[in-house]
Design goal:
Elements lengths: L7 H45 L14 H13 L5 E14 L5 E3 L14 E13 L19 E10 L9
Antiparallel strand pairs: 1-2, 1-3, 3-4
Helix pairs in contact: 1-2
């Protein structure tokens, strides 16, 4: 007599592979894609800060060699090369650290210094980018509860860079 269960493994194997592929592989690919796009936004922030560090002034009104012109332009140029990154907002501010006391002062976003830079402080430029990074395949209404796997993931990335010309940050 022949065993009737001998072909059941092959018949069920296809169904098991399909379930594993749909339930594990697609979400993993989506999560990796969202993570890659997060890293691209992070790199764009660093590119913007590297471009803004040698700026001689802070505001756009004072010339094209300003932090508010060079930084956001470099960030936008980097992000425009890639797809899946949207709703980008860029904020920039100055931070100072008193050398003697190590106290850090955060100045308002997108605002120049009110007075010339003090010789007793170290000045940095901080840039914050908020963006939505998309997964590779957006499932839409299927599973809205998992950002980065089923739909866009909102990220806020901030970084700092020493300014090379703190004397012009009040212009």
């Amino acid at each position: 007599m022949r065993d009737r269960r001998s072909g059941s493994f092959i018949a069920e194997y296809v169904a098991v592979i399909v379930v594993i592929f749909l339930c594990l592989l697609f979400p993993l690919i989506n999560l990796v894609t969202a993570g890659l796009r997060y890293c691209l936004v992070l790199q764009a922030v660093h590119d913007g800060l590297q471009a803004a560090a040698p700026a001689t002034t802070f505001t756009v009104a004072s010339g094209t060699n300003s932090v508010m012109n060079l930084g956001p332009t470099a960030i936008a140029d980097t992000l425009s090369k890639y797809t899946g990154i949207s709703n980008t907002s860029i904020r920039t501010r100055i931070k100072s650290t008193d050398i003697a006391t190590q106290t850090v002062t955060d100045y308002p976003w997108d605002t120049k210094l009110a007075a010339p830079a003090a010789q007793t402080s170290i000045y940095t430029i901080e840039c914050q980018v908020s963006a939505d990074v998309e997964p590779l395949i957006n499932f839409g209404g299927v599973c809205q509860m998992v950002p980065g796997i089923c739909g866009p993931m909102h990220v806020d990335i901030a970084a700092q860079e020493l300014t090379e010309n703190p004397a012009g940050m009040n212009q």
